[in-house]
Every structure is written in structure tokens, then in C-alpha cells.
Amino acid sequence: MGPGVATAAEPRNIDQLKNEIRAYVKSGDYGREMAAIAGRAEAWLAERGGKQASGERLAVVFDLDETLLSNWAFIEEHDIGGSDALWQKWMAQGEAAVVEPVREVYRTARRLGIEVYFITGRRERLREGTEKNLRVIGCGEYGALIMKPNDWKGTAAAYKTGERARIERTGRRIVANLGDQDSDLAGGHAERTFKFPDPFYFTP
Ligand SMILES: [Mg+2]
Predict the structure, then answer these.
(1) What is the pLDDT of residues 75-86, one digit of tens each?
(2) I need a surface site. Which of 120, 168, 169, 184 has the fewest CB within 10 A?
(3) Element (H, E) at 17
(4) pLDDT tens for residues 170-180?
(5) Which H or E run includes 57?
(6) How far is the CA of 13 from the centre of ligand 1 (A)?
(7) Domain 14-195 maps to which CATH number in 3.40.50.1000, 2.60.40.10, 3.30.230.80, 1.10.1200.10?
(8) How far apart are the CA of 102 and the centre of ligand 1, in A?
(9) How many Å lie between the centroid of ligand 1 and the Cα of residue 109?
(10) Residue 75 C-alpha to ligand 1 middle, in angstroms?
(11) 90 C-alpha to center of ligand 1: Å?
């Protein structure tokens, strides 16, 4: 083919894409964008907490991976890949780093008396390592850590939406839902949603 012939069907080059992702993290852009979203969530909690009606029980929902927890150390070590078995082993260790600006949202919620719920796509079998990880990063106080049943076969979106609806049926009002995947946030049951960037993986 000569110059100017379109090759529109060719996907993007995977090595170049990986380089872009590394640069996005290492330049600090990723951290800055995470912090910007977290700042908006924090401002909303402060505003909404101030307008709390008497008798209203407010709650906030956080996703864990690539929201409150960063797996970048693992992702980088495995060339932005890593088999499912390696991921499971890594998550069981409970050594993911904290995303500091999102921990600030957690702290703001606690200070305002807004109850914290973690809804994660991690399965129940990872509970021990996940609870340890949350304690290590100073986020060990919460209403519940809701984990996917070991035998769950549906989508993440259906599971997470169902769990938010369940929280609401206990008389709580979810004022904010924070996550890095569209499937964390789809399906309603939150006054506001906050979407963090995630170029690393996709969860339908
Ligand atoms: Mg996530």
C-alpha cells in the first residue's frame, strides 16, 4: 500500500499504548486527575452533609481497586497485564497502596457522620487480605465491606447496583458513589457519581 491509504481497521499499537499509560502515571497526570475528582467528591459531601435533614441517614459508597486502593505496583511489575491467578495472589496479600486524595474523601465522610460502604468486585475469598489492606491504609472503620459472592456469575454492574439498592432499603440515603469503572456507577441508587480514570483494565 502506498502512502495515504487508510488502514482504519488496524487497532492501536499495544506497546505504544503501554508507554502512554506508563507516562500518564509517571508524569503525575494520573495522580492529579485522581485528586481533582476526589476534590469534587469531597466538596459535594461537605455540601450535602450540611443540608442533612433531621432523621436522614447518609451513606457514601466507595469502590476499592483503582479508587481507594492503587494496584499500580503490581500492574507495572506485570507490564500492564498479569494473569488472573497473579492478580488474586496480589490482592490476597493486602499490600495495595492507598490513593491519598480518596482517603481524604473517606475521612471527610467520617468527620461528617456519613456512613462509609465499600462495594468491591473482589470476591468473598479475598476478605481477609482486603480487610487487612483497609486497616493498613487507615480506612478500617466502615458500615460494611461488601464483596462479590464467590459464585457470582452476573455482571459487576448488576451486582453493585443490587447492593446499593439493598443499602437504601435499610433506610439510608446514598449521597455519593465513587468508582473507576462505568460498571461501578451505572444503575442509579446514588445522588451523585464520581468517575476516576482507569486506563489499565476494564470491568463490564
Ligand atoms: Mg475499581
Answers:
(1) 999 999 889 999
(2) 169
(3) helix 14-26
(4) 999 999 999 99
(5) strand 57-62
(6) 25
(7) 3.40.50.1000
(8) 12
(9) 19
(10) 13
(11) 15
